[in-house]
Write a structure and sequence with these properties.
Mean pLDDT: 79
Strand content: 25-35%
Helix content: 10-25%
Number of helices: 8
Strand order of the largest sheet: 3-2-1-4-5-6
Radius of gyration: 28 Å
Number of strands: 21
Order of helices and strands: HEHEEHHEHEHHEHEEEEEEEEEEEEEEE
Distance between the termini: 76 Å
Low-confidence stretches: 7-27, 409-455
């Protein structure tokens, strides 16, 4: 009996090994995963080798195979280049070996061109892509690009592609936050090239989350809308979809949208902030019944801009501006501080990342009144601004002397309450004192964010 038992065990091990080599079972999550690797001359050979090793380690444990995840690698260079298409490798180990074998292309960093190329690859059957599975893009960059990134990246997200961005630390936070899928906290990572292994497990889990749901899901949630995506349940010839939307508290006020059978996404807009919405996707098939799918989505609270500006540390050629930060789930993903002379002249701008609420303005002219505007930028494209007026002294000695103590104070100087609002200058020249600014008003702008300079 012992030889027979050994034979059965050997056969079982051989079958298990064969299953592993063939890839995961058909029940594994399906999706097309495209790695976009900065292979240009702006990346050192050492950085390229570290990133290449990271991507290989990221891919190895993933359930890659013909009926599950498929992976492709595209280089960013003067011209985009496909290292391997989606249908070339059938296991995580094969993908890891292929990534490790990739060589640096050098050339320019034409990321926008590579993103347009990636869009074609993600939806091209000739490249091994599948038409009805979730799409994921993982872009590893050193932060720079020779051409615009925003428009082609937005096209990818509009098509339902989930975008993860890993920057090795030199990227513009505002631009990369806008480029990544929402929320940026989950889809954007700033990591030193030697510490990439720290995010591998978290990023791998996020990729699996993006491809796991084979049902209606929401993304790009803002205070006024959200994006919906779902797997292809119909074809253009087999039926159509009816998409329904209603506030949870008012189920009778339903908005409906009819979509063709080949649709897999839709974006709802003009919604109320901080509101629960019930969503129903009703497939109307002329072949066989298909069950509706339901989802509840809560919009973010309305974006609130800075509520107070404080001007401090005023010098003839510099001053510090601080503001109350925007907190909560609708927090701004960055600020823009604009300043220029009130009497006319060129305005300058400084970008301040989320999590910071002050900056020092340099290169000012002595004895000049300035208008300082702090704008909070939100993912929805809206901006909220608050302005203050400040005057630089002619010299360090030109500051107004501290007033004498009132009678009966025993010679002690009064304590100034830092939270008290400044007294405006009757002459219109701004607020008096060292730590003061005169708030002028609040402005709201809508539309796409401008490209900003790095801090």
């Amino acid at each position: 009996m012992l030889p027979w038992t050994a034979l059965v065990l050997a056969l079982s091990l051989a079958l298990a090994r064969g299953d592993a080599e063939r890839g995961p079972l058909a029940s594994a999550p399906q999706g097309d995963l495209l790695f976009l690797l900065d292979s240009s001359a702006s990346v050192s050979h050492y950085e390229f080798s570290r990133v290449r090793e990271f991507l290989g380690q990221l891919a190895a444990p993933l359930p890659l195979g013909p009926g599950a995840l498929r992976a492709s690698l595209v280089h960013v260079s003067s011209q985009p280049h496909t290292e391997f298409p989606f249908d070339q490798h059938s296991s995580g180990a094969d993908v890891q070996d292929a990534i490790r074998a990739a060589t640096q292309r050098m050339g320019d960093t034409n990321t926008g061109l590579a993103l347009a190329y990636a869009k074609e690859q993600l939806f091209a059957e000739a490249a091994g892509a599948r038409p009805v599975v979730p799409k994921v893009l993982v872009w590893v960059t050193d932060g720079g690009s020779s051409d615009p990134v925003g428009p082609p990246m937005q096209e990818l997200k509009d098509l339902g592609v989930t975008v993860f961005i890993i920057s090795t630390g030199r990227g513009n936070l505002l631009e990369l936050s806008a480029a990544a899928s929402a929320p940026a906290e989950k889809h954007l990572h700033f990591v030193d090239v030697d510490d990439l292994y720290i995010i591998a497990q978290e990023l791998r889990g996020s990729i699996l989350d993006a491809v796991q749901p084979q049902q209606l899901r929401a993304s790009e949630v803002t205070s006024s809308g959200f994006h919906l995506a779902w797997p292809g349940l119909l074809t253009v010839d087999s039926g159509y979809y009816v998409l329904e939307l209603a506030p949870s508290a008012e189920p009778g006020t339903v908005r409906r949208q009819q979509l063709p059978g080949n649709a897999t996404s839709w974006t709802w807009g003009d919604l109320h902030p901080d509101t629960d919405y019930d969503v129903a996707l009703v497939p109307e098939s002329n072949v066989q019944p298909v069950r509706p799918q339901h989802l509840q989505v809560r919009t973010l609270p309305e974006e609130a801009g800075p509520e107070r500006i404080v001007i401090s540390h005023v010098r003839p050629r510099s001053l510090r501006v601080s503001w109350d930060p925007v907190l909560g789930p609708a927090a701004a993903f960055g600020y823009q501080v604009q300043f220029g002379p009130l009497q006319g002249g060129a305005a300058q701008r400084v970008d301040v990342p989320s999590g910071h609420n002050s900056t020092t303005l340099q290169g000012l002219a002595p004895g000049t009144a300035y208008l300082v505007t702090v704008t909070a930028a939100f993912r929805s494209g809206r901006e909220r601004a608050l302005s203050a007026k400040a005057c630089t002294p002619n010299s360090e000695r030109s500051r107004a002397p501290r007033p004498p103590p009132p009678p009966g104070a025993g010679g002690r100087e009064p304590t100034e309450a830092p939270s008290r609002a400044p007294s405006p200058d009757p002459s219109g020249g701004g607020a008096r004192g060292r730590n003061q600014g005169l708030v002028l008003g609040v402005g709201v702008r809508a539309g796409p964010l401008p490209r900003g300079a790095s801090t």
